[in-house]
């Protein structure tokens, strides 16, 4: 059994399908025969058209919904509810409006059974890391979109996740705010200060995917399926042209 846990990949998605009932009565098939494995330490990007089922796949991995076919496993065990060590940054922030920044972030630790004092300490550290020092007692409605998503990041990172799922984390923000937050996150990442081990990020930004990921999965639509896998080639001349990319290569 222990052997199985050690050898099992962090995430193993096999032949997963998901359909939703339509008002007309017939089911709509959103995902079909999806295969995906994530090993600990991997940074994986997911690209695909709107409506192709990317968020649905992330929700399955996060244990928020179950597949209608196939198997979704985390460390060799079927995903039934949110797996320990997996957290998610949502496109639309998904903060609780009646809780303060600190309470929203502490919530990330609830399932882990961390005691109160330790919860507070970890939450304040995550808030500080993500640039929200001084806003601990603010409510989400008092914050800008960029700051709200910083809370989303803090809540997901506070658990020091084995896997961080990010569902188009910058796409609900205006261009400038998105760029600031993206740059801040990449800087923290490059400095080794983001406490997650592996990442699955959904993005429409190809540059972002190339910059951050070890491999990129391309999703097809109707129904959603992993159609192609690209290994990021660090020596590709187009990649070398990008100044941020050069900085990344310098850091390797
Ligand atoms: P993406 O994230 O790639 O844009 P989604 O996973 O959000 O795609 O959605 C894929 C399709 O599944 C869409 O057509 C959407 O309307 C449908 N869908 C997603 N969630 C539900 C749901 N809970 N009930 C019915 N249909 C849904
Ligand atoms: Mg989506």
Automatic annotation (TrEMBL):
Query: Where in the sequence is the signal peptide annotated?
Result: none
**Domain of life, per lineage:** Bacteria
Molecular function GO terms recorded: ATP binding
Q: Per the UniProt record, which residue ranges are transmembrane?
A: none
**Keywords tagged on the record:** ATP-binding, Nucleotide-binding, Transport
Q: Provide the ABC transporter domain boundaries.
A: 11-246
Family, as annotated: Belongs to the ABC transporter superfamily.
- For this entry, the protein name equals ABC transporter ATP-binding protein
Which organism does this sequence originate in?
Labrys miyagiensis
Recite the lineage of the species: Bacteria, Pseudomonadati, Pseudomonadota, Alphaproteobacteria, Hyphomicrobiales
């Amino acid at each position: 059994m222990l052997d199985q846990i050690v050898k099992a990949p962090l995430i193993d998605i096999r032949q997963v399908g998901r359909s939703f009932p339509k008002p007309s009565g017939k089911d709509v098939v959103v995902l079909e025969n999806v295969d995906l494995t994530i090993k600990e330490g991997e940074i994986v990007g997911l690209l695909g058209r709107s409506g192709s089922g990317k968020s649905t796949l992330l929700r399955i991995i996060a244990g928020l919904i179950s597949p209608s076919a196939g198997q979704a496993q985390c460390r060799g065990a079927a995903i039934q509810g949110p797996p320990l060590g997996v957290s998610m940054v949502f496109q639309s922030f998904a903060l609780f409006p009646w809780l303060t920044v600190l309470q929203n972030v502490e919530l990330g630790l609830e399932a882990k059974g961390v005691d109160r004092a330790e919860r507070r300490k970890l939450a304040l550290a995550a808030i500080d890391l993500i640039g929200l020092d001084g806003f601990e007692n603010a409510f989400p409605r008092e914050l800008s979109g960029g700051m709200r998503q910083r809370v989303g990041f803090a809540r997901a990172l506070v658990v020091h996740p084995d896997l961080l799922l990010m569902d188009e984390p910058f796409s609900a923000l205006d261009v400038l705010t998105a760029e600031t937050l993206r740059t801040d996150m990449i800087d923290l990442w490059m400095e080794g200060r983001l406490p997650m081990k592996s990442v699955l990020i959904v993005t429409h930004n190809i540059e972002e995917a190339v910059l951050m990921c070890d491999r990129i999965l391309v999703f097809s639509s109707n129904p959603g399926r992993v159609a192609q896998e690209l290994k990021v080639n660090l020596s590709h001349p187009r990649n070398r042209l990008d100044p941020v990319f050069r900085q990344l290569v310098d850091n390797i």
